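#dry-run=false #mode=assembly
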Amino acid sequence: MTSNITPKKLKSHVFVCTNERAAGHPRGCCKSKGSEELVKLFKSEVASAGLASEVRAQKAGCLDTCEFGPSVVVYPDGVWYGPVSPGDVTEIVKSHLVEGKPVDRLRIPGK
Amino acid sequence: MTSNITPKKLKSHVFVCTNERAAGHPRGCCKSKGSEELVKLFKSEVASAGLASEVRAQKAGCLDTCEFGPSVVVYPDGVWYGPVSPGDVTEIVKSHLVEGKPVDRLRIPGK
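#status=ok
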């Protein structure tokens, strides 16, 4: 190991699909549905909630739930959300990440 | 919901950091250390192990463990690996994803 840096442990890890496909692809893609804006919103809402030291929100490649995008998965809970709108982010952060209650109305069925 | 597709449930979800930074950045980056090759290897090894229906391996943005890259996290277990070499992938798939035994020698300390 070449570093003395000790990474922090995460309570929750939020992955937002930012995969991009060519226009007209039959599965669509999350990037074209505004998912990069969602990443920014999750980061800012997590920070505002005082969770920056224990929650990480970040980009991910294709989560393979394109038809439900923009899609998001929260680990280690394994809770999948989609489609997520900018207005949903505050609710996910407050209910799920702060209070531990997943937002059932936004969950991807079957995941 | 605009689709009748029912996504599959995942037993394990492998995220490989493929973040890229400019050459010379003090934290380095996983892409420059060959992480895109790791994504391909994970996908092929997962398929070869017959796990394609229950394990997904994919790209992720920065996992914020740059100093230990190429870095990989396996959820829902929350097991972090790094640095991962191409030769380590078969062992992670066989030991961790097939047999359920994380590869302790490759774990990122403190995560």
